[in-house]
Each structure stands twice: as structure tokens, then as C-alpha cells.
């Protein structure tokens, strides 16, 4: 971000033209040249004036640089307390009794709480424009350190982490980004759509709009959209994803892009806002040697061009990648720092610690460092050398780092380049969150053709079979047969909600990462979007099922709309209950077991097969918590007790009593079902918010 300013005019002609973007970036050799041309485009994240006539000034770019420092950062976990019992020798016990002539305890019990140190105190810094690689064996505390530095660690830790010499504040997140170890991507989106989704929620362009005109035809609105596409396209080029931009990401059920491309897409999501500092946990995990080299070349070029800083957890880098790091921080197997410095100084350091250079070891230098850090005696030797030669200098350097400007002061001074503060815990306004989530959710629904075909086909078949089972039953005077049809229809439509349970469970990890990790959106926006999708999905599914079953069974057309509405409300009520179930557990087996248990109990008290005439009073109250009861009672009251029901279809008072029917349930039942939906949807949101999707750091 500190390179000289470049004159840029943000006109339509400066934005990318689809016809000029046909070249493909397929190998790592194209990254650096492509980045040189992308530099000017990415600088547009921070234009100098609201009139959009020049690129950022050097003063502003300098202000955007973040110098990360940390001092004596440590982390430990409590382990199960141990109980120690001390026994007194029997002869001493008898002797003491004879001397004191009073009873004496033969044993004493002491409970001691212990803590296991995961990460021992470590200090260091990440200057602007550098890449810090954090290495070490598995379980040495690498991920714990990166979570602490990025502010994602919620459990207590010790030490201090400073940004430009100041503690993190509410504004720091605008300068920082995080790339997780896993690739949580939407399988039914294309590469470009996934990146645009994140851009809409994280990258703000409100500084381009001088007025309040929200007309989509306004030139500024169109220019903002093109500028956003411009930045996304350039980032795809930089990371070698341009040639797969329109390919579906894919997943377990749908084939898509390769693992290396998925990892680079995850990295692109972290870079889409042009952060000053990026944290990455195992960003090369699962990548081939070529893909790792491609990704690191891109990061190194960005660090040099924009003075971006990177703190990355790396497991076993190849030597070409190893030399790209500005500095390396290596931990031993027990969480002690054993090396910190430039990669070029490692050989000399190992020799000083008693491990002289071996012939032809340069290519295996990272592996040798990890081997030494994983063994007991070699790591102890490295630790002694580190504490005597490196640790004092590092601590002194961190202690005397000059304090720069806090992230808060930077944002306030250059406020026109930043989004206005939104609701805490989110990156964009509620409406923008809901709009982006709706766009993604509808794409997921439409593109999951296999699920759509199975869902609608099964709905149609079940509707036909149910209608044939009660063929023209309305034309008869058989009240029991008609009641049976209404009960089976309400039960079947409600259980269609089971079809969506696996999808909800499988998306919990993505929700936890996006909502509570990246803070792309809030819990309410996510839940409302899912509720809207569920509403329209239920209407289409229930409509197909009910229109076939209803008319084959011979019921009158004038009451079909009421029948459809009650069926849909019954579906939504059960769907809302299952939303609470899915929010409370983390796997399909537990969700299915808990859902089956609840629905079995509730379906027993349905108002048809069991009612107050046959159920004991002390368990009869359960029916008032059952959506099945309100669905059936509403339908039965409307079709048997309503004032406009033909005489041949009306039932006697005795028959109504046997079914526990009440005429007011025709309107009261739907009201209760609506309340049921609202209450359980709110409970589901609260559970999701409190449990953070079942994932805690």
C-alpha cells in the first residue's frame, strides 16, 4: 500500500470488459506479471477523494499499514483435578492415639487443580509487508497462537497483542482478515459467485455514492457494481482461478473444482476486502507443491505491492516456499519457541545449537527443523540456544516498538473510505445481509436438481396414492373415512419437513464460520432467509401434494385454499420445531433420533386417534403442544362444523364430541400454528446464536 500514487479515473471505460478477459491463469508463472497489472485495480479499494478522480495518496496508504506485535503470549487449559490421599502408618496412628487419648484420622485428602500448558510465553512481531510462517509439530500450539493473534480465541489466555502499539478495538476487524484451515464453500455456487457473495457482505463501496439515490438505473449504482466485479475478477486472476470462474465449486455429492483451487478460493475470500493483515491457519493444507508455490507467490507479491502483512500457520513447506517467508517462528512439540528469524539464518542457528549443516540438506531444511523440534533432546538444545540468543533480542525489540496510530483513529480520520458502523457483530446492514443470503439460498435450491426431482416426485406420488386410498370419500356419508383423510393429509404434509433436516445440519459448520467467524451476517438474517426459503418450498411441495390428494378424494373446490393454508402452516410448525432440533445438535444421527422422538410423542396426541374421550386427563395436556392436533382440528372443524357446510356433510353433536371438535378451531387453530412457528423460530435463532452453530474456539 505504500507505492507511489497512480492517476486513476473511475469511468466505465476503466472497468473490465468481458471481451478482454479471455486469458487463463493456469500455472504459477503467470501470477507475478498478472499482479503487476492488477495493482492499480486493487488500489481502488481506497480512493483518495469522493469525487473518484485519483488513486490513494501515499499518506493514506501509509496509514493503512498495520504492525502487529505480541508479548509473552501463552495459553493453557485446565485438566481434571486430581485427588491425593496421604496415609499415616498404622503404628504411628496407634502411638498418636495412646499419647493424645483421642481419635486421629489415618488419611488426609487434598484436591489439586492442574493446568496443561499448550503454548509457553512467546513474543514477536509482524511488520508491514512481511510474511511470518508459524511452524511446528502437531499439537505444539500453532493454531492457538494464530487464534489469539487474530482475536478469535474465546477461552482465557495470557500476554498482550497490539496493533500499531495499541490493543484491538471495535475497528480492528476492518483491517484484519482470517482464513480458516477448512474449505467451507457452497457447493452449488460458481467460483465467482462465492467470491461475489463475500464481497457484497464485507467489501463496502458506499464512499462512491454522494447522494441517497437508490435507483438501480443511477450511474453511480451501476459503477459501484462494475467496480466490485472488477476487484473480484482481478483477485481471481491473481490467484490463478480465472479459468474456473464459472465452474461450480462442488462437494461430496457434486463434482467441481480441484482441492487446490478450493483452497485458493478460500484464500481469495480472505483477501476480497484488501486487508492490511491476514491470518491463515494451514492455508497450504491439502495443496500440491505447485499449488502451494502458486499461493505463496501471490501472497508475497501482495505483501511487496500493498505492504500487506501475513501471519500463516504452515505445516511442512517445500524449500521453494520456505525461502519466500520473511521470518519463521518454530515451536517444539511441547509448545516452546525454538527459532524465530529469517529463513536464511536458520543453518547458522542450527550449527550454533549443536546441529551442524549436513551435505545436501538445503532442500530438506524445513523438514530437518521440524524433526529437531519434534524430538526431546534436540528440542531442548534448540530451546537453550533460543532463550540465550534470540528471545532477549525479540522481547527488547517488541518492548521498544514505537506506537503508531490506532485503528480507531485511522478509521475516524479517513471515515469517507470506510463503511459506516453497522450493527455490532456484522459487516453489513441487515437488509444487505438478507438480500445476499436470499440470492445464495435460491441458487442452492434451484441448482440442487436431484433434490428437487426427488422431492416433487415423491410429493406427487404420495398425493395420488393418498387420494386413491380415500377415492371420492367426500361424496359418502362416512364421517370416519373423511376424518381419516384429513388426519392423514395433515400428518403427511407435516412430515415433509424431514426432507430438509439433513441440509440444515450439513450447513451448520458453514454458518458457524461465516456468522461467528467471519461475521458476514447475523443469526437473525440467516434464520429469516432460511424461513423464507422454507415457506416457499413448503407452499410448492404442499400445493403439489394437496391438490392431487384433495380433489381425488372428492372434496369441494371452494375450501381448497383453506385446506392448503392449514397444511402449509402445519408443515412450517413442524419445520420450526426441527429448526430447534438442528440448532441443538451437530450430527445427522442425533438430529434424526431427537426429531423422531419428539414427533412420535406429538403425533400420538393428534385429536383424531387420541382425544379427551380416551386419553387420561393427566397426559391429555400434551395435545395442546402438538401441531398435529391444531392442524387436524382446524381442518375437521372447517369441513364438518362451519356454518356454510352442506347439511349432508355436517356431523352431529355426538360425533363432534367423539372427535373433540369445536367450531372456533376453524380460526383459532391457524392462529396457534402461526404463533408456534414464530416462537420456535425465535428459539432456534437464540440457540444458534448462543451455541455459535455448535463450534467454539
UniProtKB/TrEMBL annotation:
Its main location: membrane. It is found in: Membrane. InterPro entries: AAA+_ATPase, ABC2_TM, ABC_transporter-like_ATP-bd, ABC_transporter-like_CS, ABCG_transporters, P-loop_NTPase. GO terms for cellular component: membrane. SUPFAM superfamilies: P-loop containing nucleoside triphosphate hydrolases (SSF52540). It is a multi-pass membrane protein. Pfam families: ABC2_membrane, ABC_tran. GO terms for molecular function: ABC-type transporter activity; ATP binding; ATP hydrolysis activity. Residues 10-27 have a biased composition (Acidic residues). Residues 100-359 form the ABC transporter domain. Keywords: ATP-binding, Membrane, Nucleotide-binding, Transmembrane, Transmembrane helix, Transport. Residues 1-30 are annotated as: Disordered. The chain crosses the membrane at residues 451-471, 483-501, 531-553, 560-585, 591-609, 621-642, 667-688. It comes from the Eukaryota. The keyword Magnesium does not apply. PANTHER family: ABC TRANSPORTER G FAMILY MEMBER 28. This is ABC transporter domain-containing protein. It comes from Pycnococcus provasolii.
